[in-house]
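Marked as duplicate of an earlier ticket. Keeping the data here for the record.
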Amino acid sequence: METLSIPAAKCLVPAIRSRTIRAGWELTARQVVPHTTLLCYGTIMAHLPLKKLAPSPGAKVVDAWLEQLADQLGRDDTDHSAMCRRALCEIVHPEYAREWETAVNDASLPLGTRAALLALDPRNVTLEPEYYADCDQARFQRVKPLLWLWYSFDRTPLGGQNVDIGVRLRRLLAPRIFKRCGENFKAFQHVEFSFGYNMDVGDDVVIHRHVLLDDRGGIVLGNRVSISDYANIYSHTHSIVDQRDVTNALTRIDEGVRITYHATVLAGVHVGCDAMVGAMAVATKDVRPHHVNVGIPAKSVRVKPNAPTELNECLPTARQRSTGGGGRA
């Protein structure tokens, strides 16, 4: 097994030169530990990277379908509404895929079936942002067919829980919806936006299930941002006196930030680099770099142990509080 020699002064247990980690383990000034482990406050924590899976038996069909969509998206003369309708019809009503126009005008078909077929074309549906006074209709209509394909695909048997094809399809659509989309973007199912065109997204960003990204006033996500399941990030707010009085404010989530499960970040908040907003927290004010904010409203309860020394001095870590040392409350 490969090993890595870690100086105690640089490990994730700061200022500890000798401490029993587990029966039979001793952390000394230079302790050799397996390269797949992390040291965290007296425990050995496994570092578990995601597995690489073998291709599914039907991978060639999926690859060909995505390549077909990529080719259509890459052409300037593609009608995105028609492309969206054809793709969705092939998935949910394949029997009408070649004769959609005939089917929607066929009086012998049930009205519900005809209405459902019509709704596959984004020109026959309305999305909530279209009703907003601050919506740039020209910009929104350009991205609407791609948003409709994104949302509708997630509600089909082909989409749903299907991670591989879902991530790859959204990775095709995102650069054509967002203001900017970096490399290796990953979004899981049921992620929704307000406008979509006000998203500025860096590299290696991960958005998990059922996340709302309200980009009315703009959202900036730095490199390596991770947003966990059911989180909400807003960039508009309503007056407490008159709900029709709306204020848009840019919301910034800096590099390396984690917004964890069911957390909410309100409009105009700036979450500093490498910070964390804890589960169920509501961030109403800026979050300082490397700080962990929890609660409603969210407040800083500690600084990450890997933060620069000068930042560790401004607020004690949980370990320092338990021993009565370091920092201010």
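See parent ticket for discussion. The helical segments are 59-73, 80-92, 100-104, 111-118, 137-153, 163-177, 309-312, 318-323.
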